[in-house]
Design goal:
elongated, Jelly Rolls, about 250 residues, Arc Repressor Mutant, subunit A, 9 helices, about 20% strand, four-stranded antiparallel β-sheet, alpha+beta
Amino acid sequence: MTAKIFKFAKKTDMKTETSFKELLFNAADSLFFKLSKEDKDLLIKNTECRTYKKGELVFLENTKPSGLICLSEGKVKIFKEGAGGRDQIIRLSRPGGFIGYRALFAGENYHASAVAIENSVACTIEKNVLFSVMKNDPNFTFGILKSLAAELGISNMRTVSLTQKHIRGRLAESLLFLIETYGYYEDGATIKALLSREDIASLSNMTTSNAIRTLSTFAGERVIAIEGRRIKVLDIKMLEKISNMG
């Protein structure tokens, strides 16, 4: 990672931090929503939110977690540098998701790095306070375990696919993964994730040149349409068929 220059984000101002904490802890679909007022207030008091511009570092490989990172807004990629300095995206996180949780609960340093791929906000809950609340509320703990288990299942399935499928199948699966993770813009067809060609290649376990070539092939077959970083899905059933064929 020494060849790359990353910037660390700054802490949000008090007013902004309060609004993001409100969103994180009081949203009806949040794992924190059903906590007792006492436990919720304790977590809020021991949570710090930071804003991240596109390209800023959320955490760095081999550093120690200070708490549970919850993405409140934006998109973050978790990646590991592979052979020849080429990055491999391990996971993508969306608002409401946890980042770097494996290292935290295993008591280890991070095995990968995380960077914002668009302007984002992430809040970190101090680990000792989090562990204390988890001991007090088994339902809350079970909810976290269920969420992490689901993430692990997706990760395992993608690992198998990326080692067994051919280039077309891998890229089709990655596009479907982006749709499942982030959805579409208002038109109901354009994937709501403006990734670089390098990131699409990293997500699909292929070179950038192969990703560009395969995207162009899909566009020529009228499976997708491309406008800069915007990818519009024209034939979702064909995309699924290509992915399933491997």
